[in-house]
Every structure is written in C-alpha cells, then in structure tokens.
Write a structure and sequence with these properties.
The chain is of the alpha+beta class. It is built from 3 helices and 2 strands, in the order αβαβα.
Length: 71
C-alpha cells in the first residue's frame, strides 16, 4: 500500500490485514511505515514496512523486490 504510513493508507493496511492479507507498507517516512506495521501486527495481522519514494522508478523497483522476497 503506497502511503501506508498514515491516513487512508494506514486504514487500508489495517482493513486488508483483517481480511487475512499480508500487507506491504510503502511510505516516504520509515517512522510512519513502522507505526503502521506495529499497529497491524498488534492487531494480529502480518505486515512489513518499506521506505519507498513512489516518484522514483528505481525506488519502486527496489521496494517491490524487497516485498516479493519477504513474502
């Protein structure tokens, strides 16, 4: 989920995890992504956070590769 570190993105991460999804949290802020991961896992879900700038194609590729390896 891009922008998963806060607001609608964070809520989407939580809802997806409640449905059984393993959630990848992409955000510009490592602290924000970690807060979402902590919330999801605290509620019994599965999530991993990634520092990703979605305006950078290489950053997206690296984040996606890391997410795929973690799944």
């Amino acid at each position: 989920v891009t922008g998963g570190g806060g607001g609608i993105g964070r809520e989407l991460c939580c809802r997806l995890s409640h449905g059984g999804a393993k959630v990848g949290v992409f955000d510009l802020s490592e602290e924000a992504a970690t807060a979402t991961v902590d919330r999801v896992t605290g509620e019994g879900g599965s999530a991993s956070g990634y520092l990703v700038d979605i305006t950078d194609p290489a950053g997206i590729a690296n984040g996606s590769a890391s997410l795929s390896a973690d799944l």
